[in-house]
Please model this.
Amino acid sequence: MTALPDFTRIEAMDAADGLRSMRERFILPSGLIYLDGNSLGVASHAAFAELQKAATEEWGQNLIRSWNTAGWFDMPLALGDRVGRLIGAAAGQTVVCDTTSINIYKALHAAMALRPDRSVIVSEGGSFPTDIYMAEGVVSTRPGASLRLEGVDAPSIEDLIDGTVAVVLVNHVNYKSGELRDMAALTRKAHEHGALVIWDLCHTAGALPVDLDGANVDFAVGCTYKYLNGGPGAPAFIYAAERHHGDISQPLSGWWGHARPFAFEKHYAAGEGIRRFLCGTQPILSLRALKGALDIWDEVDMAALREKSLGLTDLFIALVEEKCAGHGLELESPRDRAKRGSQVSFSHPNAYEIMQALIARGVIGDFRAPSTLRFGFTPLYVRYADVWQAVVILEDILRTGAWQDARFAVRAAVT
Ligand SMILES: *Cc1c(COP(=O)(O)O)cnc(C)c1O
Model:
């Protein structure tokens, strides 16, 4: 292993960082090292400006006319294409709407309907829970359907895929460990058995480049409030490959997905293409904040983003393992950078208390039950110096036992 850089070298790394100027676009509270952009991305000046304009001019002054004059009606599709660029989806295949959970529901039903002679959904026991919960909900409404889970029914997801499987629902980057799956290989494997694939990109979009079209993916879903910085509860996205568009059925057949919503026809007729994944009226103010956030992404080179992300996570792992050795932290994320998303997790029996102590000292990461300290590294606004400083504070908390203060053991509702 190469020697750890000293702080002068760290400052030089920040000075040479091609994404350095991006940090100015964001509203970063002073004195805070924010390593939780994988849970809620930071606000940007552009998002605030869009929100302000949408509220005061478009809603405040122009009212109902803004559906036409301010592009409100087409916003889910327009923003969908802009998210699409970041995930390797050609235009017309991605729409921004609803939540990731709801989009998982729609994608699962659509996929099952495309494989009417099959009844099995495959997913991961270690998935972000909502994916499993939604799959359980789908299974409960489809007689004969069943769910197989990696880690429960077999050790590896590949072993669960056979000719009875309709769809594989899988996370690209695991929310807890940050482990990255091989999208092209698993998609190919599913297709060899005649199954479809839904990729959950919540920890991918805005964190690393991905090529949905190139990997021949069927469906994908994901958040915009994590690495894309769209704001709390910002609408999610759903992607469906164009080859499926003619055959997709949408279980939530609301009027926004209708072919002619303003004809007010008596019966449902599915709209063209990805539009049919819409259901009802969308949250325009949230979409407008997201639009501002996406304006920043138009200037980002995804290869450079990935390189910096790996630089940050490599440095964090090396510094923690060197400076915090002997304090019981165990790396939960892949050491191999090619298998890592943009986060690093360490386990520790007192992970909750340690994270609370870190937050009290201005280093915000998060805790995932039962014993994970999770740190997200958002290349647009996290500096190498922040990584260094976070480790200095973590080491101090561990060495002094500061985390043992009783107030750090009090559990909040959201961790
Ligand atoms: C954050 C996250 C979700 C969140 O779903 P919501 O419906 O937006 O609450 C879903 N899946 C994964 C993998 C996530 O990380």
Notes: Residues 27 and 43 are 6 Å apart (CA to CA). Residues 99-101, 128, 130-131, 171, 175, 200, 202-203, 223, 236 surround pyridoxal-5'-phosphate (CB under 6 Å). The longest helix spans residues 302-323.
